[in-house]
Design a protein that fits this description.
Blueprint lengths: L2 H15 L18 H16 L3 H7 E8 L1 H7 L9 E3 L2 H18 E13 L3 E12 L14 E12 L6 E8 L1 H7 L16
Parallel strand pairs: 1-6
Antiparallel strand pairs: 1-2, 3-4, 4-5, 5-6
Amino acid sequence: MKSSTVLAFFLPVLALSVPLNKYGGHNDGSNRCLTDDQVTTIQTNWRSLLINIDSATANSTLTPDFQLYSDSDNFIKGKAVVPAGTVTDASRAAFVARQSLSQSILHSRVAGITLTPLQILHDCSQIAIRWRWQGTWNVNNATGFDAKIGDPVGFTGIDVLELENGTNLIKTAYTELNAPEFFWDAGVKICFQRNNASACS
């Protein structure tokens, strides 16, 4: 039997023999791979930043040159203004500033905000989190919103986090979310059409 044939037979077996951690990633037994405890800390801090931003947690979780990419957020801003694939936050400071603004608005209208992980996977340098954002509408007669106090609002999203080698700080994040679900729950009139600025009139 040729050596290449032997390797082709045994490689799948060797791959299956690598220990599987509770988050579904493989750990090769070296110090290069993330442990479950490390992943728990990182993803908990990351989720905290998305609902209760603070500079101290951002500094201990993100690299200074952190970048976030989100076509979902870019589309909300206006696809003609921010094309798909454009970086959403070009630095940790920009991320903190944007989150601070958006969260101040959200917290003024939505109570009891939670961001619950639905699924978490990781390898040695990346973490994927599928999550559910939920809260309860807390104001009546907000301009542009038809939701009433007590109405549930929420949406589902997924993040892929790339970590910096050696520090395990998050260097890049890719975030997509179902924003139209939130707009629907909040009673926002949704209408848009390419090349028709008066579609909602």
